[in-house]
Amino acid sequence: MAIEDAYELAYREAVRALEQQRAVASELQSRSGMLLAAASIAVSFGRESVGAVRPLAWLAVLCFVLLSLCVLAVIWPHGDRAFSTDPQTLLASHLASGEPDGTALSADLIARIARYHRVNARRLEQMSSSFRIGACLLAIQMLLTLIAATVTV
Predict the structure, then answer these.
(1) Stated pTM of the model
(2) Taking a C-beta distance cutoff of 8 angstroms, is the pair 51, 57 a contact?
(3) How many domains is the chain built from?
(4) Which of 52, 101, 138, 140 is the most buried (most CB within 10 A)?
(5) To the nearest whole percent, how much of the chain has pLDDT over 70?
(6) pLDDT tens-digit series, residues 57-112
(7) What is the 3-state secondary structure (H, E, C) of the chain?
(8) pLDDT digits over 111-138, tens only?
(9) In this structure, are residues 67 and 41 in contact, taking their beta carbons and an 8 Å threshold?
(10) Radius of gyration (Cα) for the chain, nearest Å?
(11) What residues make up the domain containing 22?
């Protein structure tokens, strides 16, 4: 395998990994929005039944507030996430160092994408954790609503 082919393969794989991360982030954000919508519906339906049992009402509201914070943690834009690199900046840095070398340029590009991938992976793990906590809070909120409905009936 020629060195150019190896760089091309590494570059394609790095770009594919970033695209996969972008899809995961987008999916988590979309699912978080649905989680918040479900929690809002649960709050509106459970208002009458939970209202009769004060401690359960406050716990359900607390779950909703905490779930909302979890959703915000997922959907809030973060400046440290990157799914692409600025080619002009990359090229300018290599032109400033003298005569640009294609192999060095490729290696630098792959290294930048790898750094982005590591930063994104940490951020995606935080987003996933927030989503899981939010999903658990939704389950607790719904359980509290069901318990309150059976107590008041």
Answers:
(1) 0.78
(2) yes
(3) 1
(4) 138
(5) 79
(6) 788 889 999 999 999 999 988 776 666 666 666 666 666 677 667 777 778 888 88
(7) CCHHHHHHHHHHHHHHHHHHHHHHHHHHHHHHHHHHHHHHHHHHHHHHHHHCCHHHHHHHHHHHHHHHHHHHHHHCCCCCCCCCCCHHHHHHHHHHCCCCCHHHHHHHHHHHHHHHHHHHHHHHHHHHHHHHHHHHHHHHHHHHHHHHHHHHC
(8) 888 888 898 899 999 999 999 999 999 9
(9) no
(10) 24
(11) 3-152
* Contacts of 29 by beta carbon, 8 Å cutoff, 6+ apart: 74, 75, 127
144, 50 in Cβ contact below 8 A? Answer: yes
Residue pointed to by tokens 């996933």: 128
CA-closest candidate to residue 72, choices 123, 125, 29: 29
Residue 47, CA atoms < 13 Å, CB-side half-sphere: 5
Per this entry, what is the length of the chain? 153
Task: Name the residue type at position 56.
Answer: L
For tokens 């519906």, the residue is 41
